[in-house]
Amino acid sequence: MNDPLLEIDDLRVDFDTRAGLVQAVRGVSLTLGRGETLGLVGESGSGKSVTAQAVMGLIDVPGRIAGGAVRWNGMPLVGEGVRRRPRRIWGREITMIFQNPMTSLNPLMTVGAQLGEVIHLYLGLRGAAARTRAAELLDAVGISGASRRLDQYPHEFSGGMRQRVMIAMAIASEPRLLIADEPTTALDVTIQAQILELLAGLQEKLGLSIILITHDLGIVAGLCHRVAVMYAGQIVETGTVDDIFARPGHPYTQGLIRSTPRLDAVEDRLVSIDGTPPGLRTPPEGCAFRPRCPAAQAACHAPQRLASHGAGHVACCRAGVDAWDVGAA
Ligand SMILES: Nc1ncnc2c1ncn2[C@@H]1O[C@H](COP(=O)(O)OP(=O)(O)OP(=O)(O)O)[C@@H](O)[C@H]1O
Ligand SMILES: [Mg+2]
């Protein structure tokens, strides 16, 4: 890829909690190109949100960036090489929709006033001009009757509509990267599909890059160009959506695919992955998936090593070595 927009390079994030040190992100490396949608998947606690928060400069005590760097257009943004806080990037060029949208809107302010704040802050517009822009934004996210809707409060909007408002706020500054953390988890399936369609439409229209965080591979298949699979604070596989679904290299990815419901499934049984993820307080030596891996060998006591598994596809270095099939094990 030429000139990635975003580079995450060996990023580490620790939380110094009373119960001990939690290594939430343990050496994550990722790149994102212009106009690209990357799906970040993995089960609960694998470090997806913390990775996104690090990119947004939101890691705060008791958390800290323990190593690595995030670069934006080649410029140090987080971690190594940062001289002063690059304030004009966050909220403007990179915006984020947080995991719990219902608590991200202020219940005491009208939707118009909240959008107006963002528009004033990032576009410098006030009064009638700001209101016109706010109405345009609501229109862009598929909320009709925008001028009436601007005077309503969040509780007068349905869950799906509130999520659309969140998206409107996130695109108000005309960002180049939108990070959407589980943007549809709280919504029912029909509304989910509409929100995903909206994101896809906005991406095409605005040339946005998107990082879509989800635990649902079905969503990734529909919307993303590339996927990165996280497990216990690390990336265990990355590749194009087509490659990941056709030739998943890591047994964890294979398990995730098998445990994703499919409309065209021949099997009527969902397969779950045996075992539980490791605690991040004392991450295991070597490959973190080893205790659950049907193909684990003595060599897997050494730190996880990823290897090329085809063009732009990186996975566990042992992928394809053996009878490499979780279900058959
Ligand atoms: N502020 C915090 N203080 C202490 N530990 C934290 C904090 N935030 C996150 N963690 C820990 O970091 C790890 C990764 O959490 P993260 O929220 O990134 O998971 P996730 O992949 O987003 O999971 P989910 O799918 O449930 O949203 C977890 O073990 C979590 O408990
Ligand atoms: Mg999360």
UniProtKB/TrEMBL annotation:
Intracellular or extracellular location(s): Cell inner membrane
Entry keyword Transmembrane helix: no
Keyword ATP-binding: yes
Keywords for the protein's UniProt record, in alphabetical order: ATP-binding, Cell membrane, Membrane, Nucleotide-binding, Transport
GO molecular function, one term: ATP binding
Pfam families with a match to the protein in the record: ABC_tran (PF00005), oligo_HPY (PF08352)
Residues annotated as domain ABC transporter: 6-257
PROSITE patterns associated with the record: ABC_TRANSPORTER_1, ABC_TRANSPORTER_2
InterPro entries xrefs: AAA+_ATPase (IPR003593), ABC_Ni/Peptide_Import (IPR050388), ABC_transporter-like_ATP-bd (IPR003439), ABC_transporter-like_CS (IPR017871), Oligopep_ABC_C (IPR013563), P-loop_NTPase (IPR027417)
Gene Ontology BP terms: peptide transport; transmembrane transport
Membrane topology: Peripheral membrane protein
GO cellular component terms listed in the entry, alphabetical order: plasma membrane
SUPFAM superfamilies in the cross-refs: P-loop containing nucleoside triphosphate hydrolases
CDD domains, sorted: ABC_NikE_OppD_transporters
Record-stated family: Belongs to the ABC transporter superfamily.
NCBIfam families: oligo_HPY
Name of the featured protein: Peptide/nickel transport system ATP-binding protein
Organism per entry: Allosediminivita pacifica
